[in-house]
Amino acid sequence: MPKAKQSKRRKKFDYNTDRKKLKKKFIKKAKPRIEHTQIRNAWDDNKSTARNLQDMGLSLDPNRALPIKKQALLGAGKDDCRPVHLITKPYILSKLQEEASLQEEDSKTLSSDLIEYVQHMIREHKDNYKAMARDEKNYYQDTPKQIKRKINEYKRCHPQHYEAFISSLAAPEAMDQ
Q1: How far is CA 93 from the centre of its chain?
Q2: 99 has pLDDT over 70
Q3: pTM > 0.90: yes or no
Q4: At 155, which helix (H) or strand (E)?
């Protein structure tokens, strides 16, 4: 069977490609940047990925770290004696645990238009969601459940603002009586 025509063709140098940039691109793909600073500093390029992670007390394969134990047949249980690996860099494990224990702040916020919309609906209709759905400011024709969901979102994202708003609504009513 004859060879394909392309394989006989002579290789030509491409003057339009920057070989230095190509090399950098391949190196970058081969060794991706590690985001965590502690892991990046402790990483040893001469060791394999599995060995590096093992030295830090981490696992490359979670299925091997925590295997699913199969039930033994009628008391024929064998003790699984796998070698325990020595952790040479425990400070990384403690640093990761410390970072994981920090509570993450809720960074979600609502747009000023939505806050204004919700405040208008509460001001005009209190808890009557059906009346809110028929309100003329309901431009997007939200259903009562959608409006209720938006109000609950406002309560969750801005609890202090909501409490201040409700207290400001209650104050003028007390003055009228």
Answers
A1: 20
A2: yes
A3: no
A4: helix 144-157
Q: What is the pLDDT of residue 76?
A: 58
How many Cβ atoms sit within 10 Å of the Cβ of residue 79? 4
Kindly tell me if the per-residue pLDDT of 135 is higher than 90. yes
Asked if residue 114 lies in contact with residue 154, where contact means CB atoms within 8 angstroms, the answer is yes
86-107: burial string, b at 16+ Cβ within 10 Å, e else? eeebeebeebbeeeeeeeeeee
- What one-character DSSP code corresponds to residue 11? P
What pLDDT digit, counting tens, does each position of 106-125 carry? Answer: 778 899 999 999 999 999 99
The DSSP element (H or E) to which 174 belongs, if any, is helix 159-176
Distances (CA, A) of 89 to 5, 41, 56, 86: 56, 11, 5, 9
Q: What is the DSSP letter of 78?
A: -
- 89, 57 Cβ separation under 8 angstroms: yes
How big is the CA angle at 63 (ends 57 and 68), to the nearest 5 degrees? Answer: 120
| The two three-digit tokens of residue 90, written as one number | 């425990």
